[in-house]
Amino acid sequence: MRDALSVALTVSVYGVAFGAASVAAGFSVVQSCLFSLLTFTGASQFAAVGVVASGGAGISAIAAAAMLGTRNALYGIQMAPLLKVKGLKRVAAAQITIDESTGVALAQAPRGTDAMRLGFWLTGTGVFIFWNVFTFIGAYGAKSLGNPASWGLDAAVPAAFLGLVWPRLETMYLRLVAASAVAFVLLVTPWMPAGLPIIASALVAVGFGWRER
Amino acid sequence: MSTTMLWVVLIATSALCFAIKLVGHSVPERWLANARLQRINALIPIALLSALVIAEGLVTKTHVVVDHRLAGLAAALAALFAKAPFPVVVIAAAVTSALVYHLH
Predict the structure, then answer these.
(1) From CA A187, how far away is CA A109, in angstroms rounded?
(2) Which of A20, A156, B62, B79 could link B84 by a cystine bridge, Cβ 3.0 to 4.6 Å?
(3) What is the Cα B36 distance to its own chain's centre?
(4) Which of A161, A174, A199, A206 to mutate to test the interface with B (most CBs of B within 10 A)?
């Protein structure tokens, strides 16, 4: 219960950042809110608006978001046997299958399956509510500010990406993957259409993950 | 990007991301149990998010450009090294970048 609440509160900060980034990229406040309601998976949403902001093609934005969303399928595979739901409830469960709900559910494992289920539903719905409310606040706030560069919004967006990737760089190996992706984008940017280097950077992940270490 | 295209991006992204989630709840476990797929999948967020930092902070269209955004990113990096929480990181970047933008 406490886990679910603290996770939902943390998410609100990212929600504000997403709302602001989305408006800075050219989406309306309504579109930004629909993103959070319908897509509801933070990293994918950030990636889609990020590609749009960098002048990339629509298809690149969609592809980048889908690639970042694939891990939710792996979460679903772990959650489905635990939740055992059908019909509309399964649709709802699928929509709230994200990093946070899966993480809290798995952390409850020592307390049994009932606690895991409760953790999943509480965190999923809590994050859903907070994420959407704070997306609106961020989007509306950014809209009232005007020129993004004047308020540093154009730097806040890459800083948000940096803040998202930073905690994941736990080992030297993962830092090497990140550094390689950085070098890759700097190298290919002049030779590729805008936005494409972002999805092409998935090749770095393929290159590193192909063989067992 | 045109308003129509923004709607296309919004709807297609939402539909695909939901479909991916639903697939996870619907397929037998062994389908996605491939070890290589899991290794690559675990690295994709790191590669893509790192790429986005550069694409948003150092690139304008198809050129690598050094401007006020880099000052903001440097401030964000300093905040992260100082173990600052996420909001501080983002605000430090915004304030620094805006300052450099106006001084320039």
Answers:
(1) 45
(2) B79
(3) 24
(4) A161
Q: CA-to-CA distance for A152 and A158, rounded, in angstroms?
A: 11
* Residues ≥6 apart with Cβ < 8 Å to B46: A165, A168, A169, A174, A177, A178, A181, A205
Q: Which of A164-168, B44-48, B71-75, B85-89 has the highest mean pLDDT?
A: B71-75
The per-type count for chain B, helices as H runs and strands as E runs, is 4, 2
CA distances B41 to A67, A127, A181, Å, are 9, 23, 15
| Model pLDDT for residues A43-69, shown as the tens digit of each residue | 899 999 989 988 889 999 999 999 889
Chain B residues whose beta carbon lies within 8 Å of the beta carbon of residue A210: 36, 39-40
Give this prediction's pTM.
Answer: 0.81
Per-residue DSSP letters for A159-194?
A: HHHHHHHGGG--SHHHHHHHHHHHHHHHHHGGGS-T
CB contact under 8 A, B49 and A161: yes
The answer to whether the CB of A46 falls within 8 A of the CB of B45 is: no
CA–chain centroid gap for B11, Å, is 19
From the list A104, A100, A124, A133, the residue with the least C-alpha distance to A116 is A104
Give the C-alpha separation, B103 to A191, whole Å. 32
Q: How close does chain A come to B94, measured CA to CA in Å?
A: 4
Q: Which residue has the tokens 């800075």?
A: A24
What is the C-alpha to C-alpha distance for residues A201 and A11, in angstroms, rounded to an integer?
26
Decide if A46 touches B, using CB distance below 8 A: yes
Position A3 pLDDT exceeds 80:
no
CB–CB of A65 and B94 under 8 A? no
Write out the two tokens for A161.
């990406």
Spatial distance between the Cα atoms of A153 and B20, rounded to a whole number of angstroms: 31
